[in-house]
Amino acid sequence: MKIVSSFIDDINIEKGKYHAFTFESSYLLKLFKIHLFTFFNNKAQSETQFINVLDSNNNPLKPKDFHFISFDCHHLDLTIEKNTKAEIHKLLFHQLENNPNMVESFLQFQNQLTTFTSGLELIDEDLLIEFQLNEKALLNLIKSLDIIIEYKDDDYIPNYRIRDFLLKSMLKMNPTNKEPIMVISHPEMDIGRNEFDYVIEQLKKLNVTTIVISSQENFLTAANDEHLFLINKYGNKYDIINLRKELEIFNLIKKESAKELARSIALFDFNKNYQLLNEEIKNFLMSDRL
Q1: Are 8 and 235 in contact (CB under 8 A)?
Q2: What region does 151 belong to: left with phi over 0, alpha with psi -120 to 50, or beta?
Q3: What's the domain range around 190?
């Protein structure tokens, strides 16, 4: 699968893998997010500024081919967010339709409520007023239920735990088995540094095509060389694989640790931050830049 656009290099996306993006330009970051969401939400794009998705044979794919999930990680507390409550209610309705145990319990409740409602009446001499339960009233009753979330014995519920639950739940709500793809924007925004690796591990465990947009090293270097995209202000992606080969050729890094080290070194070079690099690698990168 390939993401093609009018403003950055073509991006190869591998099914079921973790991909990470960072941008030198806030303008290109904004364009990427806007047009990615515009495409997957099946909204119109201009001919001169766009993102499209192609299959391995360069045939265009349509938004309806995907089960699209997105998370912008900027909320202070997901437990009180309207979107969280809306997604939990969606999951509840999904379970009421697909979980055999809940379906049976729901039908019993519906029959009892119907019996109760049908027994309600107001009489005034020759005037009779009766009540009838309808599907909309039943749905509104379920939507009105308060949601109480508990986590271990703690008063504090971390956002990453709620998000993990919501992502897994949204993935289940895919009745036609479309190709799932997740876009997670800046997951480092609402978690502590000690939780970075855990959150990355949980995302990878989902085995779903994942696009993480981040500025944080852990989330970026967690992607393989082929799946890490450092996009400069001109829309060009950094050639990490070529950098690794050059570092190996000049014996600047050992082959057994080349892949992980090359990603970190590429990120230092991309950010023009050479202070923490050893002198040999720093001089190599600086000479190459000249």
Answers
A1: yes
A2: beta
A3: 2-81+152-235
